[in-house]
């Protein structure tokens, strides 16, 4: 890993931490809302899509809730 020198303007670090906190809160809220609506979590790893069902099971099979709107 390449070493990067510390920036002289420390406000950049403070602002970055604030933005990260806001983003993490938004993610938690979106996950909670999706769970209420029965929408599974989705993540991408090693070129594959994975789905996490409400019971915690991880699968690569597309859940029915995502198949409903297919033409």
Structural summary, described in words:
Helices cover 44% and strands 17% of the residues. It is α+β, with helices and mostly antiparallel strands and 71 residues long. The protein has two domains: 10-38; 40-71, no CATH class. It has a three-stranded antiparallel β-sheet.
The percent of residues in helical segments reads 40-55%
Beta-strand percentage range: 15-25%
Estimated radius of gyration: 18 Å
Order of helices and strands: HEEEH
Beginning-to-end CA distance, first to last residue: 46 Å
| Number of H- or I-type helical stretches | 2
Shape: elongated
Give the total of beta strands: 3
What's the arrangement of strands in the largest beta sheet? 1-2-3
Task: Summarize this entry quickly.
The chain has 71 residues and is α+β, with helices and mostly antiparallel strands.
What structural keywords apply?
2 domains; alpha+beta; 17% strand; 71 residues; 3-stranded antiparallel sheet
What secondary-structure arrangement, pairings included, does this model have?
Elements lengths: L10 H27 L3 E5 L2 E5 L5 E2 L4 H4 L4
Antiparallel strand pairs: 1-2, 2-3
């Amino acid at each position: 890993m390449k070493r990067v020198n510390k920036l002289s303007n420390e406000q950049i670090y403070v602002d970055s931490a604030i933005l990260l906190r806001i983003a993490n809160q938004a993610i938690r809220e979106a996950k909670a809302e999706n769970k209420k609506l029965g929408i599974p979590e989705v993540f991408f790893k090693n070129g594959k899509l994975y789905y996490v069902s409400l019971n915690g099971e991880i699968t690569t099979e597309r859940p029915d809730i995502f198949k409903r709107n297919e033409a």
